[in-house]
Amino acid sequence: MRKLPEIMFPVIVLITFVLLQATPASTSETVIFDRILSDHSIGFDILYVLSQAIHENKSIIMDLNADNPLMYRIKKCGRVLLFTHDAVKEQQVIFGTDWIAWMFTLSGQKCSEYEVTNQLYLDVLTDKLTSGVVTFHVADHLSITRMENSLYQNNIPYYLNSSAHETNVFISTLTPLISKVLSSSFLNIHLICDLTSPAKIQFSKCGLVVSNPLYVRGIESVILKNSDLESISRVSQLQCTSDFSQSRFEIRVTTFNRAGGAFALKIVDDTTVAEEAFYIGFVALAFMFLVACCCCVCTCTNSCCFKKKRVLTNEYLETFAMKPLDDRCDTCGESVDAPHHAK
What are the transmembrane regions (predicted)? Predict the structure, then answer.
């Protein structure tokens, strides 16, 4: 007769297997690094966490804890998605709907046939032996009070007086209007700069910067591309303990030399600009046409007047022309053909 433990063991294994199959995957993902130095890259997969957040219409919270200050960047296929601008030991960032959808799409992309699918990469940069942990987990959305349209800073100038290589940070509340610009084929956002030095401009929030900085020559107007506007919209959705709003973002301006001046973000309706250009061009063409007509009329008039004057002169000469001197009488002044009177 078989002993009870021998009978129960297969049953316990079977029950454990069934429970593991029935238990859903964890809605969190943890990335651990231990005693790393310099630049260290770690691959991680949060595709399931992202899909759960999308399915449940929730946010994702990223928690970072380390024993020494560090900087980090998150990448996909060598492309930097975001990075810290200062070293941190602790950080909590909440990713909203647009971020989650974007990272879900990127996670599923395969960079090459040799890459493990769904991998993102965390690059940790530190100058000391550092250990820490980064956790991604699903959480409920935070309720946010939207700002009124009157508070949107459209075409509001920002003034700066900066030393060389100094970074100045400004707050913009233009975010709610960006979606309107993205959905329109006529609206654009212009970055208008009047600075005394070339500068680098980046967009950030909660200590994180989106990639692809803009470089301006100093006095310049730059039309922001859709990719720039999408990056600004995403970064403005980041939430943290220092800023729970989803309607603003930071503009970081780093001048290469000591500089002063101002810059602004302005929404421009291209239809209005096109109409103004059309009317200006039309008036210019009309003016040129009138000038050409006047020149033509004057030329023709002068030519006709000259011909008429020449005809009249010829007629006058023919009518009132003096007779040839050879036929005149040198002594009496009378024509030789005139009759002689008797004395």
Answer: 277-300
Domain boundaries, the chain: 23-139, 149-272
Terminus-to-terminus CA distance in the chain, angstroms? 193
CATH classification number, 149-272, choose in 3.50.50, 1.10.3470, 2.60.120, 2.60.40: 2.60.120
3-state SS track over 271-310: HHHHHHHHHHHHHHHHHHHHHHHHHHHHHHHHHHHHHHHH
Contacts of 293 (CB under 8 A, 6+ apart): none
* pLDDT digit string, tens, across residues 241-292: 888 888 889 999 999 999 999 999 999 987 754 444 444 454 556 556 676 6
Torsion of CA 315, 320, 321, 324, to 10 degrees: 150
Distance in angstroms (rounded) separating the CA atoms of residues 33 and 38? 12
> Considering only the top CATH level, what class is 23-139?
mainly beta
pTM of the predicted model over 0.85:
no
